[in-house]
Amino acid sequence: GSRRADALSASPHSAGVIAFNWCVSRTLPALRHHNVFLSSAGRTAWARATSPGGLQRSPNFYVHVPTRTDASAAPAGCESVMVLVPVANLQEMAAAAGMPPLHLARHEGGCTSGGDGIGDSGGGDVAGTNATRLAAGRSGGGTGAYSALVSAAREAVLQTLADAGVAETVDSLRASIVRELVMEPEGWAARYGLSHGAAFGLSHGLGQLAAFRPALRDARVGGLYFAGASARPGNGVPLVMIGADLCVQRVLEDLGKQGKAD
């Protein structure tokens, strides 16, 4: 089982994600419930940044504003906003730093939460030799490997939103953010057990698509079943739910066969 786990962990993984969760003390009528901002840099913008220098001035990112359809998501006259910025996962961060990636798959960490305003939060604690080494020497107000990247991503998002007319200026938008909670790949790995902090499981190269993803039942390890973004049929909520249902059916089918044999 451990050999199988190591093999899956060593496989290419999808992007990591920096999530900014903002409490905003004003309305932002220019934003819809779902908003996608695409960089003018084209294909270059899809390269996953491992440092601030690799992040586009106006990167690709997604913005979710639940208050558009659910008024209870924020007090009257305010907004609840979540921003997702794709970046390198822990596997790719390790490779960029010339370190073995497997040791980064499982470690302690967490989300970072500011008190009032933004940018004043500390990074989550990071345990593990490689993760700690990655964090060393990086700026940005935290101890995590992503602290500098978080700061750069925040500024890029604020500037892009201001340029798009979401707010009058970057400063006015920044001032309206009264509370921030940030979750980066280290936090996703620690809180939800995501291998390498990859938000979408295994990557989606040709060798890991559809039937080439892990089967619902492992052929070598008895009693080992897979469900989730990295298993068949693929990632995304609908496919994961379908995969979970198929996995349950397979387990019940196998238990039925075992019962008849007994």
Please, could you describe this protein's structure?
By secondary structure, the chain is α+β, with helices and mostly antiparallel strands. It has helices spanning about 1-10, 90-95, 130-135, 145-165, 170-175, 185-190, 235-260; strands at about 15-25, 35, 60-65, 80-85, 110-115, 175-185. The protein has a 6-stranded antiparallel beta sheet. The longest helix has 25 residues, at about 235-260. The protein is globular, with a radius of gyration of 20 Å. The chain starts with a helix and ends with a helix.
User: Low-confidence runs (pLDDT<50, min 5 residues)?
Assistant: 102-109, 120-143
Taken from the alpha-carbon principal axes, the silhouette is globular
What's the end-to-end separation, in Å? 26 Å
- The Cα radius of gyration reads 20 Å
Cross-sheet strand order for the largest sheet: 2-3-4-1-6-5
Concise structural overview:
With 262 residues, the chain is α+β, with helices and mostly antiparallel strands. It has 7 helices and 6 strands; from the N terminus they run H-E-E-E-E-H-E-H-H-H-E-H-H.
Topology:
Blueprint: H1 2-10, E1 16-24, E2 34-37, E3 61-64, E4 79-87, H2 90-96, E5 112-113, H3 129-135, H4 147-163, H5 170-176, E6 177-183, H6 185-192, H7 237-261
Antiparallel strand pairs: 1-4, 1-6, 2-3, 3-4, 5-6
Protein name: Protoporphyrinogen oxidase
Organism: Chlamydomonas euryale
